[in-house]
Design goal:
Layout (H helix, E strand, L loop, with lengths): L5 E5 L11 H7 L6 E8 L5 E3 L20 H5 L19 H8 L6 E6 L3 H4 L1 H16 L8 E4 L3 H10 L6 E6 L18 E4 L21 H9 L3 E6 L5 H10 L3 E4 L2 H10 L8
Parallel strand pairs: 1-2, 1-9, 2-4, 4-5, 5-6, 6-7, 7-8, 8-9
Antiparallel strand pairs: 2-3
């Protein structure tokens, strides 16, 4: 029997290890997951590195925009020390380092978030996406069963679909569409194969955010995307509330990406949502 619901470690195992580091990726592969989610940027001298933020300052002891730095400058940063002294010396990984690890685990899918956006960086972002995907193909991490591309860029969604087919990879976007860059010029939904459903209330006419009462979106959101043929997914960061996972399942979520993949996995197994691996 195939897995009913898929579970991905967010930025590796973000709750227990420095995010987007080789230590975190190696450790999360020791538990029962279906996929790893990670983030890619291109350096000034055209190398792909694994980091969530455009700037190094939050997760490392250095600062600076990655697209303005060389690979050597990025690699001088310590990506572990801010998480804990025991992780001192962890580097920002190169894409090749990460893909070498992934190549040893053909059973694990890659959820690849492209973090350079054409709405901000123009042609640089398209070049970054193409280089990243060429590396994935080089390491055999390609095909819709092995690779999902995630982006907050509507323009990048459109560009990818002019160059690649649905057999090459799935495209994963976000709801509400207002958080997608460029959604005022093009409808991102027409490119999606998967969607991460955030329960955000939008804004009042005065521009103030509308407060939502629960992190899980209404069942209608999940049902409507499923009827559109788009896989409804959720992301929960440090949330360990069992009700959140139970209600997400009841509402129709079939993809989970979590900072606590061990805790999330235990809840999903409790409700019979996943087939345990032997």
């Amino acid at each position: 029997m195939e897995t009913k619901v898929t579970l991905a470690g967010h930025r590796g195992w973000r709750a227990k290890y420095p995010e987007n580091t080789m230590r975190g990726f190696r450790e999360v592969l020791k538990i029962d997951i279906d996929a790893i989610e990670m983030d890619a940027h291109m350096t000034k001298d055209y190398h792909i590195v694994v980091c969530h933020d455009a700037d190094l300052s939050r997760t490392t002891d250095k600062s600076g925009k990655i697209y303005r730095l060389t690979l050597d400058e990025v690699r001088q940063a310590d990506a572990g020390i801010k998480f804990g002294e025991e992780f001192k010396g962890e580097k920002v990984p190169t894409m090749q380092e990460f893909l070498e690890l992934m190549a040893t685990r053909p059973d694990i899918k890659l959820l690849l978030e492209l973090k350079d956006y054409p709405e901000e960086l123009g042609d640089f972002a398209y070049a970054s996406a193409e280089l990243t995907l060429s590396l994935c193909r080089q390491y055999g991490i390609f095909g819709k069963d092995r690779l999902t591309v995630i982006t907050f860029s509507t323009a990048l969604c459109a560009w990818l679909r002019t160059r690649y087919t649905k057999e090459d990879f799935s495209i994963h976007g976000f709801y509400p569409k207002s958080i997608m860059k460029g959604s005022d010029k093009d409808d991102p939904y027409k490119y999606y194969d998967e969607v991460c459903i955030f329960n955000r209330g939008g804004k009042t006419p005065e521009g103030f955010p509308i407060k939502v009462e629960h992190p899980v979106a209404d069942k209608a959101r999940f049902t409507e995307f499923a009827l559109m043929g788009i896989k409804p997914c959720v992301h929960y960061g440090m949330n360990t509330d069992e009700e959140v996972y139970r209600l997400s399942l009841e509402n129709g979520a079939i993809g989970f990406t979590c900072d606590h993949p061990d805790i999330c996995g235990a809840y999903l197994d409790k409700y019979g949502a996943r087939k345990l691996k032997k």
